[in-house]
Amino acid sequence: MKRVFLIILILFLLLTTCTKPDSNNLLKADNVTIGYGFSSYAMFGADQEVVDNLLSHFNSLSFKRTAKQMDPATAFHVNFSYKGKGVKSFWVDKNGVFWLDGKTECFTVSSGDLNYQYIKAVYEDSQNISARQATKAHFRVNTYEL
User: Fold this and answer.
1) Whole-angstrom Cα distance, residue 43 to residue 51?
2) H/E element holding 111?
3) β-strand 85-92 against 31-36: which pairing, if any?
4) Would 126 be classed as within a structural domain?
5) Where are the alpha helices (DSSP H) in 18-110?
6) In total, how many domains does the chain have?
7) pLDDT given for residue 41 in this prediction
8) What angle do CA 52, 53, 57 make, to 5 degrees?
9) Dihedral angle at the C-alpha atoms of 103, 109, 115, 117, nearest 10 degrees?
């Protein structure tokens, strides 16, 4: 009886130590939506390269709580999705204050880098692409530097 209990205990310990905790590094996304402040325009979708760049940089971030307040008027709301389901969302303002996953608790980056200007460039270029598509029915593919 002790042997059976010991075998079950060992199997249980092996199985529970093999699971990885949730982490940003495990996220996958095939789409991104970006909104800005109080604007009625939102960017729906981007090239996979842009999605991968944004997600890669977000995955590299570590956060710490802060007493700074979010400035919603300058904040981008970024939603990542995978196969039609939301996997991660965040807000970031021009001062680097973050809200994570729909919560209004304020964070700043303790390590890693996500360039606010890059998000802004992607968002603004999507507006230009939408306008060009409506008038010319074609668009150019841009590359963005981080």
Assistant:
1) 12
2) strand 107-111
3) unpaired
4) yes
5) 48-59
6) 1
7) 84
8) 115
9) 60
Predicted confidence (pLDDT) per residue in 40-87, tens digit: 888 888 888 989 989 988 999 999 999 999 999 999 999 999 998 998
From CA 59, how far away is CA 10, in angstroms rounded?
34
- For residue 100, the domain's CATH number is 2.60.40
Residues 71, 97 contacting (CB under 8 angstroms) = yes
Contact 102, 90 (CB under 8 A): no
| Strand (E) or helix (H) holding 126 | helix 116-136
Task: Kindly state whether residue 35 falls inside one of the protein's structural domains.
Answer: yes
For β-strands 62-65 and 42-44, DSSP reports them as unpaired
Gyration radius (Cα) of the chain, Å:
20
Q: Are 125 and 113 in contact (CB under 8 A)?
A: no
Q: Which residue range is the domain that position 86 belongs to?
A: 26-136
Angle CA 61–67–70, to nearest 5: 70
8 Å CB contact between 70 and 99: yes
